[in-house]
Records
---
Amino acid sequence: MHPLKKDRPLRRIVLASAATVSGVVLLLSLKPHTPPEPALAVPVPSASAGTAGGSGATGTKTVTGDTAQTRWGPVQVRITLVNGRITDVTAVRHPADNPRDQEISRYALPRLRAEALQTQSAGIDSVSGATYTSDGYRRSLQSALDSARG
């Protein structure tokens, strides 16, 4: 006896519904896998600028924070401190595996950078629509600040 016989319409409805639900669940659980991109090359100030060592609050110091793993990929920032003040924040690594990740990064990273420069700390607000990237940015920034300030 065939499971989809015409004399059993309820069985057909149940099987079709189960197949539809299973298909939707499988589609929603997929995330395309692409190999991670190498970190972008970012210019680093020359050694004559006093980037290493020195006394903690004087001179220029450039520090790269730890890589923060997020749901959508790694986030890592590099900060430049001049006399103990944050003068530059650069995202060294950020999610860029697909066009949507790239769009979110183009939108969120400048806002996160501006807020970090304004607050002079890792106590920055998340960017709406980029919660995971914002969280990773904040964690990497805090790591860089901890390393820079001892």
---
Amino acid sequence: MLESKVKLYEKELINLRSTRYTMDSIVGTSDAITTVKQEALKAAANRFPVLITGESGTGKELFAQAIHHASPRKLYPLIRLNCAAIPAELLESELFGYEKGAFTGAHRDGKPGKFELAHRGSIFLDEIGELPLKMQPKLLRVLEEKEFERVGGTKIIRSDFRLIAATNRNLEDMISRGLFRRDLFYRLNVISLQIPSLRERKEDIPLLARHLLKQMIWDAAFAETHLDEDSVRMLVNYDWKGNVRELTNVLERAISSVEGDIIRPDDLPFYLHRSQKKKGRQTQIGTLKQAQAMAEKEAITMALRKTNYNKAQAAKILGIHRTLLYKKASKYGIELSPVQNVYPN
């Protein structure tokens, strides 16, 4: 009876302190993401520092939260701090806390810092590459000794925390330029996770896009909406320099403006179309006549879709007579009425 109550209280505590993301939140079946996920699970089982690297938007914080949630520390909080978001002069007090009267504007009762709050849990320092040089030896000491003093205080505070850091910068390059301490890098880089970019795991894009879309619809209480196959192909063929964050933005824009319950290529941002054209020009070399025909076909198709297949309006947009529109549509095999497709749910 007592054991069951303990388990119940433990479950409630996990729910209260749970991170938003778990290992199940990491979507993908590619070798690239599967390998990193396995490495993250191994990292979760121990107490050593973890350094997560990768381009902006790849999901570094997602991995940090998932590691904490899968670790023995999951009953205790994950304290987060973005090193780039805090002014340099306030960073020390944010990390280590301060005593009352430590500086003008300080809270009269003082304030615990992030390391203090992370006792028995984990602390996630995002954008660690933005940490000011003068703060780096102080962070190094805390990592080595697991003790510190509040700003304006004299009492030694000890904290049992697990550090997870992340950056999109090349820290070794920063070391060579004197912008990052080598000894701090070695202390941070005990377990290293390199998160692959989205273009390195394109096979995950259809699954990931549908997962994100479903999540957005649920969060915003929108009507159920799906991606058609042409849209999925367009997403797969794009390079995604902004990675998952950019994909999320594109899908949010699409569901905010789509009419109906199917997202088609026309519902996606224009720069995705431009990217497809550029790739087409790079991979297909033909005669000038072929290029002209391709451009005409594309212009007619776009005009018809934009006008909901109103031939008179489409011809007006194209600057041609409606009779010529019919001739060219027949020549290029373009449907003058929308084709009714049935899409699976």
---
Amino acid sequence: MKREIIQTQDGSTTIYLPEWDESYHSKHGAIQEAYHVFIKNGFSLFQGKPIAVLEIGFGTGLNAFITCLEVALTKQAVNYVGVEAYPVTMEEAMHMNYATAIAPESESFFKQLHLAEWEKPTEITNGFTITKRQQFFQDIQDDGLYDLVYFDAFGYRVQPELWSEEVFAAMYKALKSGGVLVTYACRSVIKKAMLAAGFKVEKLPGAPGKREMLRALKL
């Protein structure tokens, strides 16, 4: 499938799929959406604690990168697992301007995230270790390993099967008791699938350009 590099409204880049009219990040702003959804409403809940994070949709590496930068501030230990079925190329990754926009001195961290071998734990900074797994989301079978899930799959409009009760049941199983899942999406059908999987679900204000998002808790 053809992939194009485009600029979003906050000046940060993303990858666009013309065939689907779908992008990896919000066209309203890739960086601002990532911080709002995954850091402000997810990672910040565990500040100061060692945690394990599962990302559904490693993609451009933006969410992993900003989490890595947060670790430098919070000094906590984070074991990060990024799952991606169709990895971007190194060339595509290097066209992303996230380091330049956020922290130019940390550009080497962003490169290391993409250079890290798949299926092998790699320490990027002191306290931040990543394991990238090339895997279909439907095949995830982890059990009680994670404190936090970043659910950043392509939108329901183009891949509704990734937002099913079955997939959220796998996410529920993968989380520890008290674990949290956050996503940019907020369709009623998605909320129903989360509830059917056992989650307690709440709507939160969305990132710029989006009215609401969802956060789900495993009790």
---
Amino acid sequence: MPDDLVATFSLDNSPVRGRVARLGPAAIDPILRRHDYPRPIAMLLGEALTLAALVGSLLKVEGRLIVQAQGEGRCPLLVAEHRGDGGLRGYARIAEGAAATLAHANRMPPAALLGAGKLLMTLEREEGQMTQGVVALNGDTLAHCAENYFRVSEQTETRIRLAVGEVMTQDAPPLWRAGGALLQRIAADDARGDPTEDWTRASLLFATVQDEELIDPDLAADRLLYRLFHEEGVRMTPPSPLMDRCTCDEERLTAVMKQFPADELRDLVEPDGLLHARCQFCARNYLIPPNKVMG
């Protein structure tokens, strides 16, 4: 199972816990491909989806983890969501006229795309409770911004690496791939004593991982972890799957539309006599008969 997974790992000789994620043809490629985003926005959204998978799988409650970055730049809103079943969905809003300015660009810092803004992480539990943390978008990469989030909002020392790219193979179209890893320090206790030296060593080893390694289709997650931490005694648990899966459906959409005033709905009826709606996340088009939402 080399692709589309997230897994926990631990080190025998260091006070850390971690997650590793690999996203490929079942998760990241269809999400980025269907919207045809400019390359830097596609890469940033891919990093956000990878981050959502890493952080969402870290939580021990059922619900969904939403990573949201917003500002007033060329990409004023970016949303990535991970659910307990491994489903992922993502969306980026592009300001009018901005796509042309990004046509030939590559990876860019978050602030260059989003402008001065903020990073939000929201946990929505199944029972309806919501927890949210916010931090300024300060950092050269989304990974750096997320590290700031954990330091400020969670008071947890965290290292994060995220990578996104298109892999070219012979006689096949380019394939978007993404990979990421998260390392967190475990609090000291009487048994472990002061873990500072062990954490420093693990962090230095973690920092050596390359973007190419994180997205390499021929380097499985367990082999990557062994390459980084074999001297520390690394253990990876069985992985959980990740997949492109939106939550939109016609029943939910009609329930929302029923809350609109009838006059507004009549104005939205298209020449074919139907109401047209499009999911921003999965780009699915819905054609709704007006009598389904209007009495």
